[in-house]
Amino acid sequence: MPFKTVTSKLAAQLDRDLMGPEIGFTLEQLMELAGFSVAQAVLKEYPLAASTKTQVLVLAGPGNNGGDGLVCARHLKLFGFHPVVYYPKPNSKTPFFSRLVNQLKFFNIPVLNVDENWTQFLDSDSTVCVVDALFGFSFKPPVREPFGSILQQLHKVQDRLPIVSVDVPTGWDVDEGPVEPNSIIPKVLVSLTVPKPCASKIDSLETQHYVGGRFVPAEFAHKYKFEPFPYENADQVVKLSPN
Amino acid sequence: MPFKTVTSKLAAQLDRDLMGPEIGFTLEQLMELAGFSVAQAVLKEYPLAASTKTQVLVLAGPGNNGGDGLVCARHLKLFGFHPVVYYPKPNSKTPFFSRLVNQLKFFNIPVLNVDENWTQFLDSDSTVCVVDALFGFSFKPPVREPFGSILQQLHKVQDRLPIVSVDVPTGWDVDEGPVEPNSIIPKVLVSLTVPKPCASKIDSLETQHYVGGRFVPAEFAHKYKFEPFPYENADQVVKLSPN
């Protein structure tokens, strides 16, 4: 399915519009729906009935992409998975993020800090997949530590342990795609609201491509020159490719 | 399916727990998930493919039950329905409610004020159902105007136009059920988090009973002496009866 994309610059404008005074969405609302949609994509791609494995490693970055990951982990637990969250650089600017962490503790979901041994969960015998919620469309290179080391570890295991990237695979150029020689190649990409230009690089990579974040009307999509996606029923994600 | 219920008093305590400092849910998060679950119940009960009708009348009260209705209307629009909202007494205490109204305007969903003619939408030729999001578990009688007149109108049309009540049918005693002679009888009840005692009265009324608001872990349910509900996949509602 061909799809329109919006550049990182336009995506930032789109987010400001959605949360601006006229439309009035709150970060809490959009993050809840976005994180839920990522969890639903994981469930569709890795149905619990198809495997005895239930563990999911969620890597959460310091920004809004990380917040989507924190929400995703909670919904995964409600679906029957056993998520473990690695959150090396907690967001200290927005108080809501510490609430998201409290919610994870309420669900008995382990949240590892920077010094804890997260690589023990890179075990394909027990882990279904790794959710890459490190950085999103506002990421600018270079990758700083500890994220560079995390990406190196992911690159080593990605052939046996699938990576599910949220909106933009971490380390990719949002508009250009995988420009570094050691870029990670996710098995699943969940674009949020509308794919970013880098998503057009994945058709040749056998990556399963979903779009989630079902919260804009057709007229608004048209303003940003894309068509609404063909969501079915109450689904919060729709698979774009392969069909 | 037999189910445990929690009294209005315990339900209030449960909500305070969920939004307290320890667990840290925000009203925005819980309302988004609750409203979404009601919309999903409407879609399951009245699939769009089964009818040419798409209009849904949402009656939103001044409190949190009304907020769930405002969120529900937005998701109904995203699903393909054409909701119309009657919101006679806007919530003036919590600024988030005016944001919810802005979001409806963004979706081109009509929001009628107290003086507008909402009864024109009580037309079973074009309206699929009426969502009763007027009052929830914290309602205390008596019903004041304009809500008494609204309930009278609903009572008149309920045999030809199904009512979907959110958490508690408006006018019912939360713990005792339909105590007034002219109580409305919904065709669908969507209990939120856990049914309130009045829900045990509906088995004899041929009301379809769903539970939604999928946001508590098993341990928390046990604290309130109910069992987690058997949600499937990523569903945000589960049908309790009839099976």
From TrEMBL, chains A, B:
Keywords: Cytoplasm, Isomerase, Metal-binding, Mitochondrion, NAD, NADP, Nucleotide-binding, Potassium. PROSITE patterns: YJEF_N. Its EC number is 5.1.99.6. One of its GO terms (biological process) is nicotinamide nucleotide metabolic process. InterPro entries: YjeF_N_dom (IPR004443), YjeF_N_dom_sf (IPR036652), YJEFN_prot_NAXE-like (IPR032976). (6S)-NADPHX binds at N64, N65, G66, G67, D68, G136, F137, S138, F139, K140, P141, P142, D167. It catalyses: (6R)-NADPHX = (6S)-NADPHX; (6R)-NADHX = (6S)-NADHX. Residues 11-228 form the YjeF N-terminal domain. It comes from the Eukaryota. One of its GO terms (molecular function) is nucleotide binding. Belongs to the NnrE/AIBP family. PANTHER family: NAD(P)H-HYDRATE EPIMERASE (PTHR13232:SF10). Catalyzes the epimerization of the S- and R-forms of NAD(P)HX, a damaged form of NAD(P)H that is a result of enzymatic or heat-dependent hydration. This is a prerequisite for the S-specific NAD(P)H-hydrate dehydratase to allow the repair of both epimers of NAD(P)HX. HAMAP family: NADHX_epimerase. This is NAD(P)H-hydrate epimerase.
